[in-house]
Every structure is written in C-alpha cells, then in structure tokens.
Sequence to fold (325 residues):
Amino acid sequence: MSAQQPLVQVRNLKMYFPIYRGVLRRQVGEVKAVDDVSFDIFKGETLGLVGESGCGKSSAGRAILRLYDVTDGQIILEGTDIAAMHGKELRQLRPEMQMIFQDPQASLNPRMTVASIIAEPLDEHRKLDKRARMERVFELMDAVGLNRDFANRFPHEFSGGQRQRIGIARALALNPKFIVCDEPIAALDVSIQAQVVNLLEDLQERMGLTYLFISHDLSMVRHLATRVAVMYLGRIVELASRDQLYEDPRHPYTEALLSAVPEPDPSLESTRERIILQGDVPSPSNPPKGCNFCTRCPKVMDICTQETPPFKKLEDGRYAACHLL
Fold:
C-alpha cells in the first residue's frame, strides 16, 4: 500500500430518507439510514464495512458514489468534494468510481446481450468505433474469466457466478480507481463465493484498485479487508485494522458480532462463549437517545442513555465510539 494517502474521505455523512403520510403526503419523520459517519479509504486498500442487515451499509455505499443526494456532510474524492455536485460535473467523475451490485440478476438488463451490457459505460463516456469497442469488451471478458464466445448471449443463460462476473466487467470498463462492492457474494452459492473473491483480489493487484467491501459475512471480510469498519443503526461504532479488530475487539457491539462467527475447530467451538444480545434493533426512524446501542448493550451505563459517545481515536490507532473507552 502506498504511503497512507486517502483516495476517499467521508466527513459527517448523513443520509436521511423522509417519511410521508396521509392524503396530503406530509413529512412526519425521517429514516436516519446513515447518521454522521466519517472515515478515510486509502489508495490500494480494501475497507470492509460490516454490520447486521438494515444498519445502513448499502445506503452509505450508494451515498458515497452519489447514487443518492446526500442530506449532509462531505465526500472528498481525490481532493474534490462531490457531495454537492450535480449533472454534468458529477457525470465527468463517474468513470473514477463504480459499483458492483448485490444481486447480479436484478442489476443486469435481461434484454441486453453480455457485450452490450459491458459496453454500455463505454458508449456513455468514451467515443470508440465498433472495432475498438468490441476489442475492449473482449479484453474485459478475458480479465474476469468469461469465454469470448458468450458475448452475444443474454443474462438468463448464465449462472449466478457468471452473472456477477459480467457485473464486475461492466464496473471495470472505464478503468475506475474506486469500486464499492455491495455484498457482491451474498446472492451466490458458497462454492462460487471464493472464486469471485479471488477474482476481486487479482483485479485489485493488477489494476491498483481501491475497494469499499460491504458485507455481513465476517469471515470473508477477514480474508479480504485491510481495515474494517463496524456499523450499527446508521453509525460507525469501531474502525480498526483487520488484525486489531478480529483479535481484540473493543466496542461491546463488535465483541457480540464476532462471537457469532463459527469456529471451524470443534474443540475450540465448544469452549467459546457466545454473547447473545437481548431485544431487537431499534427503528432508524426513531433511534434511542444517547448511544444507539444502549438499548441492547450488556455493559450499559447511565451516561450511555443520555450522551452520544464521540467517535474518537484511541491510543492503539483504532477509532471507536463508546463511553467505556
């Protein structure tokens, strides 16, 4: 990894979705999907973003790529704040940042052939003649391990893993620097997951890519990520290097999350203590006062229900938001 140079800087990012009710469609509240989130992603690294379903991981990823209009905060891509950009300005930056979607079936147009799906970004942003366009499509198919003979087939003729490869080829078409991988293996068979992850790693090495890897599969994140951010109810509760986080979690939620990861060795599995959290995750439209985790935290104190803990740097270099620390 190059000398700590942030490619993406996210500062106090907020992504609220309005709730409308009644005949007049009055706004009666908002869902705080992403609530005051800050982190950096360095050139050439993979930042893993983990948390349970509905905690705001995908909303954060889409907001960073500006697929949503953000409510507040800054998203700085190579020194340029893209949070307030619109139209033509934003369009010029699109080739720099791309996304690999969770469901390869839903993210590919069923009426388009593989060649036209992969070439679509080229048609939008590059002016290539027919021959150069096809050459680039074949080059991308080779890069992701798809047979060139499949170029004129349709998405429904492929397996899930092959469809995800088409999605990856499309994301790479414009030589982006930064890719958000939104649970790219969640919809795939376990036997295919490793192949797709290995492909992502190979591509990162060859092309110098930077990833934000969103997942709830903690063992896969451990294999792939350089640093890991743990998200709960729209906020990041802990951000640390992979080894720090998995060997010595400091936030009570991270401890509970990691205690749920199965241990392959049966003798160790039988002696391990699981941390079972009580109650349900509160609604993001009505988060609790103080710390978001205070309603389920086994180590809750009085201050937790009153004051929001600051997200600050600890002595060992990690970041966490907890009054205990």
Remarks:
- DSSP finds ten helices and twelve strands in the chain.
- The first helix runs from residue 57 to 64.
- Residues 75 and 82 are 6 Å apart (CA to CA).
- The mean pLDDT is 87.
